[in-house]
Structures are given as structure tokens and as C-alpha cells.
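Sequence and structure are kept together here, with a separate record for every protein. An example record follows, reproduced without changes.
>
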Amino acid sequence: MSLIVFPAIDLKAGQVVRLAEGDMDRATIYGDNPAAQAESFQRAGAEWLHVVDLDGAFAGESVNGGAVASILTAFDGKVQLGGGIRTRESIERWLDVGVERVVIGTAALEDPDLVRQAARDNPGRIVVAVDARDGLVATRGWADVSDVSVVDLARRFEDAGVASLLFTDVGRDGMLKGCNVEATVALARAVSIPVIASGGVTDIADIHALRPHVADGVEGVITGRALYDGRLDLSWAIEVTKG
């Protein structure tokens, strides 16, 4: 298997943005046409998109639904969506309209039964977001930090049938500090669930560093700011994963 490259489209007030360390007050706007951005990534060879409703993550419910719908219409590949998805109704609604996988973060910590039931009824379509600050799980748009370790949370879903774990090092997200390969691989080795790396991807070196660890359970990598700033060429990154 090759490493999946997930270009990220983060939505705030209908615009394409990137945050620094998950801080909503430190947002850089990269465009006001999410559908066009999705099409651009598709032309570069992307088979998956990682879309986040940032406003939804803080509100606890969908806020950028119109923008998400436009992306689903524009992109022919598969879309993975997160941000404020905390009820069974919202999970089913997004899966029904064409989202391939939904990402559940806060609810995974606060309502694990929701995740288990959704994963049981929708095999391969539920991703658990394991967001970390200094090894502890961050929730509610990364605004709160729990006392639960990343590995402990991940292990709660070993037998739940979730598709993947999305591991984000919040301190690196949007900061171009380099992906935390060591922590990502350690988590992948500690659990039987595939792990997606996120946070800090800077350039092609991060792709090269993660690629050998597919055998350890690293399924993919999410990249945002590096693409938007021109530090990483998406076509090249995808080619490297297949080489």
C-alpha cells in the first residue's frame, strides 16, 4: 500500500484558511472559493480531500455546510470531513450526502458509545481524531486539554471497527515545524488501527520520512499550509508515495 496524501481544506466563514496551532484568531485566508480549491487539488492528482469545518468544531454543529456541499459537487474523489460532528444525526446526514468518512474528535472522548455504534453501523467510514498537546488529548476545537493520553484514547477504540485514527500534534499544526513522525509512528505501533499523520508538514522531506512507515500502520498524511505556501508540490508528493 502507498501512503495517502490528504490535501486539507479548512473552512472558516465560507473561506479557505489555515490556522496556527489551532488558534481561530491566527487564521490565514487562502481563498474564498472552496469548490475551486477542491478542483485544483483534483487536477494535481488527489484522490482524497480532508475537509474541516473550523467554525463547526467550536460551535458543535455544522456551520459551513454550503461550502462542504460545493466541495462534494466539485471533487470526484473521496472526502473526509471533520468539525462539529457530535451526534448520530449529523454523522448519518453527512454520510448520506456523499462524504466518504466523518472525523469525530470531541465526541470520541465525551461519548465513546456514539463512535462505537456509528462505526458498527458504518464500517470503514468513521475516523477518530486524536489531537494532542504534549501527549494529552485536546478537544472542542483544541481549546480544551484533557487528562487522557493519546494512546489511552486510541486503545479505547481498538475493537470498535473505526477506519483510522487521525493524529494531530496541535503544537505543530500550521506552523511548518515538520511532522512529528516519531509520535505518529509510536501511536501506529501501539494500536492496531491505521494512523493518519497531521500537523506541521513542511515539505517533501516529511513525505519521505513517513512513507517507510506504512508497514507500521501509518495510512496517510494531511497537508495544508505547505501546499498553500508553495513549499510542497501536491503532484510530486503523491508521486513520491507511489515510487
Summary: The chain has one domain: 4-242. The chain has a mean pLDDT of 91.
